[in-house]
Design a protein that fits this description.
Layout (H helix, E strand, L loop, with lengths): L5 H6 L1 H4 L5 H10 L1 E5 L5 H11 L3 E5 L24 H12 L4 E5 L8 H5 L4 E4 L4 H14 L2 E8 L2 E7 L12 H4 L12 H4 L5 H18 L8 E6 L4 E6 L25 E2 L1 H9 L5 E4 L3 H6 L5 E2 L18 E4 L4 H11 L6 E4 L7
Parallel strand pairs: 1-2, 1-4, 2-3, 4-5, 9-13, 10-11, 10-12, 12-13
Antiparallel strand pairs: 5-6, 6-7, 7-8
Helix pairs in contact: 4-5, 4-10
Length: 359
């Protein structure tokens, strides 16, 4: 096992004097290989605390760049980082925080084609993603490749934490995400944080809990959240831990066949630039906003509000004799709305690429 040099012994002194942790626990951290998927709201605190704690080999998967709207909660980044790839900024800042660790980056979108290659050199995966397709892909890959999945999720005021696929003393594996939620919800029906909002401090709370679970799993100190599902509500500080059991109907034999199921239907799209030009030139078209009223009140671009859940009920408000542009926050719900409307005969609909975030 790797040893600590003098600088590391000084740096980790507070760990080294911890009962039941000490040098053995710190050396386990130094040898650990942890992959963090998503360098956003959850990934930022997870990465910072794991780096500070001395996890020796950290991987980061993220294909996004830093945006100004990230800074409300992704405190690893600053204004100077806007426009730069998150993995590059994260690696630089983590190594500045702790030069005794190694950081490997993957600036690519996690897919069923690359996930085995990316997961190969890591033992623990910390899931900091914000969409169901990738969440189920990570879960299934951890089961198939024998990786421990330290799960975290946030939405509005609520967060969730769990440790899935943990290796038990009898050689079996603990519950996984599908034991609790066997199938993902229908694409586009549940908004992500960009669409539904999130309290800025919540990712820090839940991300710190995720990092804590990773450290417990690595060192063997304490009892990790195995066969449990922890939920926390920041609005009233209510928390509970639910016990979960294996679901005998769940059998994971292969990775999900496809991602972004909402993109599988033939849906015409239109760019924000084109819509702005149509507005400027007073083109006769209809603009439909399928977000929730709470989102509409924060920002709107003059579209008629018809939330996705009422789109078929209020379809009579949508023109059939001219171009109709439908939009949401990022483009997912608008695609779903068009799929529903196409099923009842609409042929004049376009989805705004990137949603209102691009306007």
């Amino acid at each position: 096992m790797k040893q600590l040099n003098a600088a590391e012994k000084s740096r980790y002194h507070r760990h080294l004097i911890l009962p039941n942790f000490g040098m053995e626990g710190q050396l386990k951290l130094k040898s650990a290989r942890v992959l963090v998927v998503g360098a956003g709201g959850l990934g930022c605190p997870v990465l910072q605390y794991l780096a500070a704690a001395g996890v020796g080999n950290i991987g980061i998967v993220d294909f996004d760049v830093v945006e100004e709207s990230n800074l409300q909660r992704q405190i690893l980044y600053s204004v100077a980082d806007v426009g730069l790839p998150k993995v590059e900024v994260a690696k630089r800042k983590l190594l500045a925080l702790n030069p005794h660790i190694s950081v490997t980056t993957f600036q690519e979108k996690l897919t069923s084609e690359n996930i085995e290659r990316i997961f190969e050199n890591f033992d623990i995966v910390a899931d900091g993603t914000d969409n169901f397709d990738t969440r189920y892909l990570i879960n299934d890959a951890c089961v198939l490749f024998d990786k421990i999945n330290v799960f975290g999720s946030i939405f509005r005021f609520e967060g969730q934490v769990a440790v899935f696929n943990y290796l038990l003393k009898d050689g079996s594996r603990s519950t996984n995400y599908r034991d609790l939620f066997p199938e993902p919800p229908e694409a586009g029906l549940i908004p992500n944080c960009a669409e539904g909002g999130v309290l800025g401090v919540l990712p820090g709370i839940i991300g710190a809990m995720q990092a804590n679970e990773v450290i417990k799993v690595i060192t063997g100190v304490g009892e990790p959240l195995v066969n449990c599902f922890y939920t926390f509500d920041a609005s009233d500080l209510f928390a509970q831990t639910l016990k979960i059991k294996k679901n005998p109907k769940v059998k994971i034999r292969r990775l999900p066949e496809s991602l972004e199921r909402s993109c599988a239907m033939p849906v015409a799209t239109i760019s924000a630039k084109a819509v702005k030009k149509m507005i400027a030139e007073n083109v006769d078209f209809q603009l439909i906003d399928v977000r929730e009223r709470s989102e509409y009140e924060v920002k709107n671009i003059g579209g008629e509000l018809i939330p996705l859940g009422r789109i078929l009920e209020e379809q009579n408000k949508i023109a059939r004799d001219k171009q109709v542009v439908i939009f949401c926050q990022s483009g997912k719900r608008s695609r779903k709305a068009i799929e529903l409307l196409q099923a009842v005969g609409f042929e004049n609909l376009w989805s705004l690429e990137g949603g209102i975030l691009e306007m």
